[in-house]
């Protein structure tokens, strides 16, 4: 089988539910047909790329997929999505002839990286990812590489990730997985990653680090990484003791782990949340706190910061409506870093705000007695370096 970039002009996505937001950036550049596994209609059966994100443990869905996709056309490429530790589903994907298995939840960068690996794989298979059955592909010599082309999209996605960004994302991945599956998290990964990020930000400008995160990650992971980078930059100013710097970086990595219990449809909802949905979201600080309290021995100061990171000094925050006297210095700093990260990232329901606009909003919050003035002043200093 062979494939070159010019063939990546169309993708068929087969999904359990409605269109996945992860497909939107891809769909803007590559014609992407979205099919519901419950109502499959795949008329074109030659040389296609199929992106399959269904419940591979459901025999009825697997049966429907087999009916639609088999016998397989010579140039078909099957990319399946499965949980990174969901071994039964990964085995099922391989049984169904997966060329690649990418991790759930899918994101646009992951998909783009897979596409570029399909484009760039040499005929001798040297660049074939280990452990994956891959097609033999030709290195592209022709095809559209102009800005905005599928190739450019994929190449952009494979711009080198800063190693500390990767280390931190692996730590976040592990902790989110552990909470979802009720496992004990590997805190060694978290502390190592926090040290790596702190070290990296002594040489890498904070804006470069944050931009690298935005290129390589999306959604809640992106948010946690941005908050961690901002927190590490905060520590670099020298305005807080070394021990507190490490605690702040760890707290930032962990602060939203409770979101692993919030359904993705709520986290990525574009419209205003209902009261019921809001209540679910507002549980995440306590859920994260309880999970970490039961499964780790991290210091109380970090646990408290995780539980209280949405509390505001005037008592208008959640979950408990604590006021200034009950909110620790570490929590106050984490809250400022968290809000700045949230304002400057793109979410399903809002665009990213420029740095200046985000800082103006934070200053308004200081004036209204909601967040700590000295924490904001230090944050501003940290963002200059
Ligand atoms: Fe949060
Ligand atoms: Fe957050």
TrEMBL record:
<dbReference type="InterPro" id="IPR003607">
    <property type="entry name" value="HD/PDEase_dom"/>
</dbReference>
<dbReference type="GO" id="GO:0071111">
    <property type="term" value="F:cyclic-guanylate-specific phosphodiesterase activity"/>
</dbReference>
<feature type="domain" description="HD-GYP">
    <location>
        <begin position="198"/>
        <end position="385"/>
    </location>
</feature>
<protein>
    <submittedName>
        <fullName>Cyclic di-GMP phosphodiesterase response regulator RpfG</fullName>
        <ecNumber>3.1.4.52</ecNumber>
    </submittedName>
</protein>
<keyword id="KW-0378">Hydrolase</keyword>
<dbReference type="InterPro" id="IPR006675">
    <property type="entry name" value="HDIG_dom"/>
</dbReference>
<dbReference type="Pfam" id="PF13487">
    <property type="entry name" value="HD_5"/>
</dbReference>
<feature type="compositionally biased region" description="Polar residues">
    <location>
        <begin position="135"/>
        <end position="144"/>
    </location>
</feature>
<dbReference type="InterPro" id="IPR037522">
    <property type="entry name" value="HD_GYP_dom"/>
</dbReference>
<feature type="region of interest" description="Disordered">
    <location>
        <begin position="122"/>
        <end position="149"/>
    </location>
</feature>
């Amino acid at each position: 089988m062979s494939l070159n970039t010019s063939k990546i002009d169309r993708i068929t996505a087969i999904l359990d539910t409605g269109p996945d937001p992860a497909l939107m950036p891809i769909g803007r550049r590559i014609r992407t047909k979205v099919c519901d596994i419950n109502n499959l209609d795949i008329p074109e059966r030659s040389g296609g790329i199929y992106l399959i994100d269904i419940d591979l443990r459901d025999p009825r869905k697997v049966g429907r997929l087999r009916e639609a996709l088999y016998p397989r056309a010579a140039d078909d490429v099957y990319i399946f999505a499965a949980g990174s530790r969901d071994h039964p589903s990964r085995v099922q994907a391989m049984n169904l002839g997966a060329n690649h298995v990418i991790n759930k939840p899918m994101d646009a960068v992951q998909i783009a990286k897979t596409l570029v690996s399909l484009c760039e794989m040499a005929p001798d298979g040297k660049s074939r990812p280990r452990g994956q059955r891959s097609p033999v592909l030709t290195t592209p010599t022709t095809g559209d590489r102009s800005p905005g082309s599928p190739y450019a999209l994929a190449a952009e996605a494979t711009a080198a990730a800063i190693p500390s960004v990767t280390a931190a994302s692996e730590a976040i991945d592990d902790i989110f997985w552990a909470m979802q599956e009720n496992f004990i998290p590997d805190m060694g990964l978290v502390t190592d990653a926090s040290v790596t990020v702190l070290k990296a930000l002594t040489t890498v400008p904070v804006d470069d680090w944050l931009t690298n995160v935005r290129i390589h990650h999306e959604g809640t992971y992106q948010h946690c990484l941005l908050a961690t980078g901002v927190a590490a930059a905060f520590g670099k100013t020298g305005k807080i003791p070394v021990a507190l710097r490490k605690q702040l970086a760890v707290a930032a990595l962990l602060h939203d782990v409770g979101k692993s219990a919030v359904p993705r449809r709520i986290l990525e909802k574009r419209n205003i949340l209902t009261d019921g949905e809001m209540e679910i979201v507002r549980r995440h600080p306590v859920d994260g706190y309880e999970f970490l309290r039961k499964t780790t021995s991290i210091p109380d100061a970090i646990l408290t910061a995780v539980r209280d990171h949405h509390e505001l000094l005037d008592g208008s925050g959640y979950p408990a409506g604590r006021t200034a006297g009950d909110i620790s210095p570490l929590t106050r700093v984490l809250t400022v870093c968290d809000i700045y990260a949230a304002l400057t990232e793109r979410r399903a329901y809002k665009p990213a705000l420029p740095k200046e606009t985000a800082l103006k909003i934070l200053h308004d919050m200081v004036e209204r007695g909601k967040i700590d003035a000295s924490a904001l002043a230090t944050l501003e200093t940290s963002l200059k370096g």
